[in-house]
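not sure who needs this but someone in the group chat was asking about Ig-like domain-containing protein from Biomphalaria glabrata so here u go. i didnt clean anything up, its just raw.
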Amino acid sequence: MGSLSCILLAFTLASISNAVSGQYVTIQPNVRGLAVTLGSTLKLTCYLDGSQGSFPIWVNSSSTQIQTFTMKNSIYGSTLTIENYREIGEKIFICSSDKSIAEITVITVEETKEGDHFYYGNKTAALTCAISGLEISPKDWLFKNRSLSGDKKFKMENSTIIIDKPNRDDAGPYTAVYEIKSSQGTFEHQCVVEYTAGPLVMDMARSRNLEQGDDLKLSCEVKGYPQAVIIWQRDKMNITRNGTIFSEYMGYKDGQIEIKNVQFDDAGNYTCTAYSERFGNSSTKNIIVRVKDPIAWVWPLVGILVEVALLAIIIIVVKLCERRNKDSLSEPPREKNE
């Protein structure tokens, strides 16, 4: 039920180390206290800084733990990996070389999470992220690295936060911050829970008119969490990367496409589809792109000139015919020969 990585606690910098003859042992993460979720993977690395000396060793490791060794640029390293870590309470891990030691305290916490999902018409949404282990007290809730304390849209009740009139902009990971008291002092622990929402592609312009040789850039704005996969199509055919530049847009991979020097065959009905594999649904918007000849304006003018010329010719012909008829009527009748 735990996460796959350790949750760092910002307590104090620097591990305990004893320098001897320019050689000393340090531990990464470089903190005195580290909290891990029950059942997660604990990974600690111990380094020996010095051109001489033996590899550092985790002295309290067991046969069920994996210890690997590395050496790079005179830095000796030993990594301790414990999968499905289930030690309850506090435990001190010690790394030692032949001349120095360092230690780190690991504290186990257990998380109980309950997220929520956005639906149209929701009046509220509730997220719960409770932890247990040692002496724990809630401190704050964070969203997009912003404290929600004092925000009237959010109401905090111990391990639960209530969102008033939620929308898709509120979707994402929320972090509950707790203070943990232990023999090593006071730690901060962060518990993350999700408020999810299906994908929604925002409205685009209905059409774009370009001239041959112009550059085309189309952007697809998507809301929802977790992020959906964006697929671009032209006339119901997937757009390939041949001649098309795909780039990130508003945090979404392939959210924007660009075609340099568009040609007539680049015209068509462009579609952006955001598909969520997690929820099995999608959202789609489309835009019609038209590509014109850059001298297309000449052809209507030519047509007008041709029409004017034809009209002038017709007028001239009519005038000539009228004059001929008039001349024929004005001539005196010829006498017939007897």
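also Confidence is low (pLDDT under 50) at residues 1-22. if thats useful
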